[in-house]
Design a protein that fits this description.
Shape: globular
CATH class: Alpha Beta
Helix content: 25-40%
Number of helices: 5
Number of strands: 7
CATH topology: Rossmann fold
Largest sheet: 7 strands, mixed
Radius of gyration: 16 Å
Strand content: 15-25%
Strand order of the largest sheet: 3-2-1-4-5-7-6
Bound molecules: S-adenosylmethionine
Order of helices and strands: HHEHEHEEHEEE
CATH superfamily: Vaccinia Virus protein VP39
Structural class: alpha/beta
CATH architecture: 3-Layer(aba) Sandwich
């Protein structure tokens, strides 16, 4: 019985991880240095609603909460979700943090002031439509690694040997 439970848990971890890779991107965390670049680029302020779409272990969400934001993370890969969900309990700003086991494609983002994502470019066309339909005027979007084709970049932060970060204002 225990073997079966362990098998099911391992299966779910791999299956949800693979599904997330197919839906948006596999789990590759943003480096601590790049989290700081994000905070600076987005200029996250107290009380703003910040989403990390595919939040992994929650590091971007927690960093935004430290800046006073109402920080929300969405994740469908089981392993990083559990990690982020438990980590939240150890954060002093936990009342302002929400980690949800929910697909980014099934979440309404109309209350967002700031959106961050680090996803594969294959997810961009669908994401563009979603953001164009749902985001309020003035919402800021920061993407890591690949710019969004067809959108005008407000600020590009790219140096030799680093992943690019791109800020857009809706
Ligand atoms: C490249 S990782 C980035 C993780 C985190 N944002 C960070 O910067 O450290 C992309 C994350 O998106 C998650 N993901 C992919 N598709 C998703 C979906 N449809 N809904 C929620 N999360 C998704 C993956 O599981 C993965 O953790």
């Amino acid at each position: 019985m225990l073997n079966l439970i362990v098998f099911i848990i391992i299966f779910l971890i791999f299956a949800t991880g693979a599904y997330a890779g197919f839906e948006g991107a596999p789990w590759v965390p943003t480096s601590r240095k790049n989290v700081k670049r994000f905070l600076k680029l987005a200029n996250v302020r107290k009380g703003e609603v910040v989403y990390d779409l595919g939040c992994g272990d929650g590091r971007v969400v927690f960093a935004a909460a430290e800046k006073g934001a109402v920080a929300r993370g969405l994740e469908i890969s089981l392993f990083p979700f559990i990690f982020a969900w438990f980590s939240r309990f150890f954060k002093k700003d936990k009342e302002r943090i929400k980690i949800s086991y929910k697909s980014i494609w099934k979440t309404d983002l109309s209350d967002a002031d700031v959106i961050y994502f680090f996803l594969l470019p294959v997810a961009y066309p669908r994401m563009k439509k979603k953001l164009e339909n749902e985001l309020k005027k003035g919402a800021r979007i920061v993407v890591c690694a690949w710019p969004i084709e067809g959108w005008e970049t407000a600020v590009t932060d790219k140096k030799e040997g680093e992943l690019g970060m791109y800020l857009y204002v809706n």
